[in-house]
Amino acid sequence: MTRNRKMPLLALIAGASLCAAPSLFAAERPSSPVAAYTAMSPEELADYLIFEMEGFDLDAPTQEGGTARDRLEQDRTQKVCSAIARSGAALDRPTAAKISALAEESIQLPEGGIALGDWKKGEQIARSGYGYRMGHRMDDHSGEPPGGNCYACHQLDPNETAHGTVGPSLAGYGRLRGTSDAMLKHTYQIIYNAHLFFPCTTMPRFGHNGTLTQEQIRDVMAYLLDPESPVNQETEQTAQAD
Amino acid sequence: MRIKNAARAAGIAAFLSMASHAAQVQPPEDVLGELIERNSSDYLTQSEQNIMMMPDNPALWTADEGKDLFYEERGPNNKSLETCDLGKGPGVVEGVYVELPRYFEDTGRVMDLESRLVYCMTSIQGFSPEDPEVKTRHGSSSDMMKLQTFIASRSSGLPWNPPMDHPLEKAMRDAGEVMFYRRAGTSDFSCATCHTNTSKRIRASVLPNINEPHEWTKAISWPAFRVGQQNVRSSTHRIRGCYWQMRQPQIIPGSDAAIALMSYWTDAARGQPAILPDKKR
């Protein structure tokens, strides 16, 4: 307590510049005033508050090597899908086709074809929510690789109860659909950029955004498709449910 | 079955007549109890244990401590907060929280409870923004959490009713709505990704739906004691956690962006009674 009273003058000046001057605040900065904000559309004002009014810690570094500002910039897919969700309207066909075409363009198939990786590694990736979180506690990718966080939204291993339900259940995915080349390609495309088949889906674009490497995608695919994977074991539970 | 429906209808009628007269501050456990009776919601009922333990909420102590702080003469100016205008006149605490954020003539800004408290503690009591009384925002033992919990608890049971009379209040609410739906970052998330469905889960947590005001009132009833963290937490702390989960950068507390988001989320619970202080997982 007393420590903070050591520099009353400084405290006073700091206090004064911030608080005793609200009228000055309002008069000198074209920021807060009613006129400036109310002249903008909601979209413009939101961007203005984020990027021009220091709404976020914009210069903070990110794991991918840019800044927070880059992280907050929206690409076309993000922008269009945000506006549609906010409007509450159903996605119209031409827009859906555009989003899907953007996804198609973004997808890079692995050279030499798609092969399944290691389902055990894939399981770790599916379970891990580590990676790309920033701010008060920044994930350090040199200590632990980023995961795919599939369990946040999906059921996979039918024996795992702590799974989300934002996405459909993927229990028995490979058992039910098989492992044809077409199925491998289909699954790869979904993980890379699911907007190809589900325009404006909430599922993250793991390949397009570069949050999973091609090797990690192959491992997660093995977790989904390999007959040995726990995802494809029949349990009493699912046998009954079927 | 019919008896139960009749009882429910009577309960609703009683509630409505109460709301139309001057609504009264109610214990949070009663507010939650009535809410659960009137609505079926997996979100509201997800933790039976938390519901049972509501009367023993440690946040009630935090509110008591906040009351002492509010009326204590403190800071370089040795003043209490009795001249602080939280929206309904100097020193009025009853019912102010459910009508924030709101526009304040003296600053020309729309402000939430936290930014208004910072304003009062610095301008009235003379604290510097760097003093721990102002700067420390998190944890049950911080002055900021004690004061917020006290003030908020004096709105328990009252319907959320943030004013939309001033053009700036409306503009901020609308910008907040854009922010809520704004997808960005390495996971393409927006708040809407997780909070526009009913009864959906992320891992084992049932998510509240912003389009269901009876769920959303509990979602935004902060301060709340978080059992998993053994601390009373604020709206600001919740927003920080959700941006972190979204893999997006940190929003600055007290910035117009943060206040816009809160204007929207409070508006979304309009008319439903606040549960303050709440208890969450």
TrEMBL record, chain A:
Keywords: Heme, Iron, Metal-binding, Signal. GO terms for molecular function: electron transfer activity; heme binding; metal ion binding. Residues 1-26 form the signal peptide. SUPFAM superfamilies: Cytochrome c (SSF46626). The keyword rRNA-binding does not apply. InterPro entries: Cyt_c-like_dom, Cyt_c-like_dom_sf, Thiosulf_SoxX. The keyword Repeat does not apply. Residues 117-228 form the Cytochrome c domain. This is Sulfur oxidation c-type cytochrome SoxX. It comes from Halochromatium glycolicum.
